[in-house]
């Protein structure tokens, strides 16, 4: 199964980065398309979108300044099916995308995604103190998968930090 298209443009407010597309996303060609995934609800209830969008509207979020990609493009049933070689290749591709498109903030949708990206295990939720680029903030949020054991209210609360970060002046956002 082929990967799904990235939704990218220059200077996005937020680039959302997932592990890889689900089988459902691979079938439909849309990000976060699995009906058990709570991504669209989380975006709306955290104040990032004016309404709850559907997966087939993912491309329209570029108009709001939000883009989508994954660290690995191959759809799988779960992140456990991703190989070390795929992560290594994906890590380099993701770094190149961030460098090229220069989003204000990269939101890693899942701690494990960020762990693979930065090759680090000790990561807290929220804004990261040592981004790879001074031009882009790095933010770690819980996965929106229905398999996550956190309460949805706790997840939404973490995502509520995103619009607050975007309202800060650039010097405050990139300060270490």
Explain this structure to me?
It comes from Peribacillus simplex. With 176 residues, this protein is of the alpha/beta class. The chain has one domain: Uracil-DNA glycosylase-like domain (Uracil-DNA Glycosylase, subunit E, 3-Layer(aba) Sandwich). It has seven helices and five strands, in the order E-H-H-E-H-E-H-E-E-H-H-H. It has a five-stranded mixed sheet with strand order 2-1-3-5-4, with helices on both faces. The longest helix has 18 residues, at 84-101. 34% of the residues are buried.
The CATH homologous superfamily name equals Uracil-DNA glycosylase-like domain
The major β-sheet equals:
5 strands, mixed
CATH class bucket: Alpha Beta
* Strand order, sheet with most strands: 2-1-3-5-4
Instruction: Look at the structure and give the mean pLDDT.
Output: 91
Query: Could you give the distance between the termini?
Result: 41 Å
| Parts with pLDDT < 50 across at least 5 consecutive residues | 169-176
Number of strands: 5
The assigned CATH architecture is: 3-Layer(aba) Sandwich
| Overall 3D shape | globular
Q: What integer value in Å does the Rg equal?
A: 15 Å
Number of helices: 7
State which percent range the strand residues make up: 5-15%
Number of domains: 1
Structural class: alpha/beta
Helix content: 25-40%
Pfam families: UDG (PF03167)
GO biological process, one term: base-excision repair, AP site formation
Keywords: DNA damage, DNA repair, Hydrolase
Organism: Peribacillus simplex
């Amino acid at each position: 199964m082929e990967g799904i298209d990235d939704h990218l443009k220059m200077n996005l407010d937020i680039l959302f980065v997932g592990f890889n597309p689900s089988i459902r996303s691979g079938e439909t060609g849309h990000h976060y398309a699995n009906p058990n995934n709570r991504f669209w609800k989380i975006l709306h209830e955290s104040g990032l979108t004016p309404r709850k969008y559907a997966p087939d509207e993912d491309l329209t979020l570029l108009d709001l300044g939000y883009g989508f990609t994954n660290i690995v493009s191959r759809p799988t049933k779960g992140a456990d099916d991703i190989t070390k070689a795929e992560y290594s290749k994906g890590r380099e591709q993701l770094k190149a995308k961030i460098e090229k498109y220069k989003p204000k903030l990269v939101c890693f949708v899942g701690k494990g995604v960020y762990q693979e990206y930065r090759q680090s295990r000790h990561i807290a939720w929220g804004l990261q103190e040592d981004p790879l680029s001074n031009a882009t903030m790095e933010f770690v949020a819980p996965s929106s998968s229905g398999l996550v054991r956190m309460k949805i209210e706790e997840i939404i609360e973490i995502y509520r930090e995103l619009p607050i970060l975007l309202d800060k002046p650039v010097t405050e956002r990139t300060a270490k």
